[in-house]
């Protein structure tokens, strides 16, 4: 766009959105111009902050008439740079933060309707106020917003029990690339009338349409929680323990986290957090929740069997919610501790659950052979096949070389290069490399049908 066109666009947006609805000063737009990891700096023309679905639709129409690209943004907590503009100075950031209302909570029908800018923690608290649980949960829930959570199909800690965000969305309200509002806010568990179009927008990272509101599924709130940290000899033993836990605890398992010894070493070194168990190559953090009082007895039985069979060499079962929080602090402190250790190249990958031990062994061999000095910091959601196989690089080792090596091993095991964080702009090239041509072609046809002008979050998910 020419400077004149940009000036006219900004004037039209300001007139439509009114005071506080448009940010143009550099100091005001700076927080919206870069991701929280500070890897992808951008420069937007302005930041539009609509306060209603009608205003979102009008912003889309105004930008389309001007030929200006739109970058939808929620809490900007993503890990793939999918919510920040490029450096051209011509793209408009569309922040949903002013659309933050919780429209309805139904504790009997087990649904909650929220606008896209509602912070996830606020939605969780609203569910808790009526003794219900919004099961989508992850570290950034205090700043991530419902629209962004849906647009990225966020995963998190409880996927093993409750599924990804996709499985917890019952209805959507979406603004399309031409400004059309599609209202599908139906609070129905069963709705088989035609195409389930909402699934196109969940996980599309704002490239097909803009989520403005959603109906989310709630569940009963468990009364009892059992949290345990176990030291295990190897990932194969951890896999056997997962089978044991499934047999004895069933769907009460809500988290099953595999953590490398290096991860907890880094947390102790850089976070000052004490590991209550002795040194080990691998650990498991397991949490189960139920409304039945027999949960703790069942969890104790699993721990005793694991120790007896040698699949665990040590373990501790939290005696209080405070102790459970301390165990979770070890897991949640890994990312920050890793950042203090040195340059880490992050991988959010998934493989079939039964292939996790073999994948870890093969990736370790490949690193040692091709990138000597690199250290794997592996941790994550073993219960759903998602491992964060981060690599602490040695001097001279490039992110590109590390990505290609790790993702190549992932492909060998029939896995995915993005389990829960999305593609954004971080993994665009790698997606083309590792997705089959037919899948990429289909994605482009869907994009062309829903965003023929290519103005919704260009350069994200699909290469231009």
Automatic annotation (TrEMBL):
GO terms for molecular function: catalytic activity; FAD binding. InterPro entries: FAD-bd_oxidored_4_C, FAD-bd_PCMH, FAD-bd_PCMH-like_sf, FAD-bd_PCMH_sub1, FAD-bd_PCMH_sub2, FAD-linked_Oxase-like_C, FAD-oxidored/transferase_4, Oxid_FAD_bind_N. GO terms for biological process: respiratory electron transport chain. Keywords: FAD, Flavoprotein. It holds the Pfam family FAD_binding_4. Its cofactor is FAD. Gene3D superfamilies: 3.30.465.10, 3.30.70.2190, 3.30.70.2740, Uridine Diphospho-n-acetylenolpyruvylglucosamine Reductase, domain 2 (3.30.43.10), Vanillyl-alcohol Oxidase, Chain A, domain 4 (1.10.45.10). Residues 40-221 form the FAD-binding PCMH-type domain. Belongs to the FAD-binding oxidoreductase/transferase type 4 family. This is FAD linked oxidase domain protein. It comes from Methylobacterium nodulans (strain LMG 21967 / CNCM I-2342 / ORS 2060).
């Amino acid at each position: 766009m020419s400077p004149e066109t940009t000036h006219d666009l900004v004037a039209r947006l300001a007139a439509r959105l009114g005071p506080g609805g448009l940010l143009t000063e550099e100091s005001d737009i700076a927080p919206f111009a870069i991701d929280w990891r500070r890897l992808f700096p951008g420069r937007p023309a302005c930041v539009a902050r609509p306060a209603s679905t009608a205003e979102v639709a009008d912003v889309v129409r105004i930008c389309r008439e001007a030929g200006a690209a739109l970058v939808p943004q929620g809490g900007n907590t993503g890990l793939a740079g999918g919510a920040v503009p490029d450096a051209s100075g011509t793209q408009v950031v569309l922040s949903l933060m002013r659309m933050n209302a919780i429209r309805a909570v139904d504790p009997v029908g087990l649904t909650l309707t929220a606008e896209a800018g509602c912070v996830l923690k606020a939605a969780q608290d609203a569910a808790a106020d009526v003794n219900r649980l919004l099961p989508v949960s992850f570290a950034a829930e205090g700043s991530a917003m419902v629209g962004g959570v849906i647009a990225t199909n966020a995963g998190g800690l409880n996927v093993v029990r409750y599924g990804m965000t996709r499985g917890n969305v019952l209805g959507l309200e979406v603004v399309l690339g031409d400004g059309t509002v599609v209202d599908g806010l139906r609070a129905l568990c069963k709705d088989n009338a035609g195409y389930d179009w909402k699934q196109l927008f969940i996980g599309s990272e704002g490239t097909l349409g803009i989520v403005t509101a959603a109906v989310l599924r709630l569940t009963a709130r468990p009364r009892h929680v059992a949290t345990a940290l176990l030291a295990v000899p190897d990932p194969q033993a951890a896999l056997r323990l997962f089978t044991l836990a499934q047999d004895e605890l069933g769907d009460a398992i809500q988290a099953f986290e595999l953590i490398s010894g290096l991860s907890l070493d880094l947390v102790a070194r850089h976070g000052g957090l004490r590991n209550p168990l002795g040194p080990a190559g691998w650990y498991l953090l397991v949490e189960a929740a139920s409304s039945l009082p027999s949960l703790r007895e069942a969890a104790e039985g699993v721990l005793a069997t694991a120790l007896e069979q040698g699949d665990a060499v040590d373990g501790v079962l939290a005696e209080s919610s405070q102790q459970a929080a301390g165990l979770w602090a070890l897991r949640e402190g890994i990312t920050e501790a890793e950042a203090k250790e040195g340059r880490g190249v992050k991988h959010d990958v998934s493989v079939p659950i039964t292939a996790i031990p073999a994948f870890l062994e093969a990736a370790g061999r490949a690193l040692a052979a091709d990138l000597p000095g690199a250290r794997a910091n592996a941790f994550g959601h073993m219960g759903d096949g998602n491992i964060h196989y981060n690599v602490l690089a040695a001097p001279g080792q490039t992110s590109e070389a590390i990505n290609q090596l790790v993702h190549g091993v992932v492909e060998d095991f029939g896995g995915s290069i993005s389990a829960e964080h999305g593609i954004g702009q971080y993994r665009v090239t790698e997606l083309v490399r590792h997705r089959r041509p037919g899948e990429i072609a289909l994605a482009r046809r869907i994009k062309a049908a829903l965003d023929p002008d290519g103005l919704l979050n260009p350069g994200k998910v699909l290469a231009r």
